[in-house]
């Protein structure tokens, strides 16, 4: 997953991410983020 911050910088991640958004003053804001690594799947570990 490629993330891009408001200043234009980017960050590459591997895994899963869940974002919880809340509408505050007519703008959607991220209020919580959870990250987890990819599960191990045998011979294709972390695929």
3D architecture notes:
This protein has strands spanning 2-4, 10-12, 16-24, 27-36. The protein has 47 residues and is mainly beta. It has a domain at 13-37. A two-stranded antiparallel sheet has the order 1-2. It is flat and about 50 Å long. It comes from Maribacter confluentis. This is SnoaL-like domain-containing protein.
Give a summary of the structure in a few sentences:
This protein has strands at 2-4, 10-12, 16-24, 27-36.
Descriptors:
mainly beta, two-stranded antiparallel ribbon, 53% strand, 0% helix, flat, 4 strands
Instruction: Calculate Rg over CA atoms.
Output: 15 Å
Q: Low-confidence parts lasting 5 or more residues at pLDDT below 50?
A: none
What is the overall shape? flat
What is the spatial order of strands in the main beta sheet? 1-2
Q: How many helix segments?
A: 0
Beta fraction: over 45%
| Secondary-structure element string | EEEE
* Spatial separation of the terminal alpha carbons: 14 Å
| Overall strand count | 4
User: What is the averaged pLDDT score?
Assistant: 82
Structural class: mainly beta
Q: How would a textbook summarize the main sheet?
A: 2 strands, antiparallel
- Estimate the helix proportion, in percent: under 10%
């Amino acid at each position: 997953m490629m993330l891009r911050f408001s200043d234009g910088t980017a960050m590459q991640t591997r895994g899963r991410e869940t974002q919880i958004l809340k509408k505050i003053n007519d703008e959607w804001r991220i209020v919580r983020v959870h990250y987890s690594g990819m599960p191990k799947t045998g011979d294709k570990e972390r695929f």
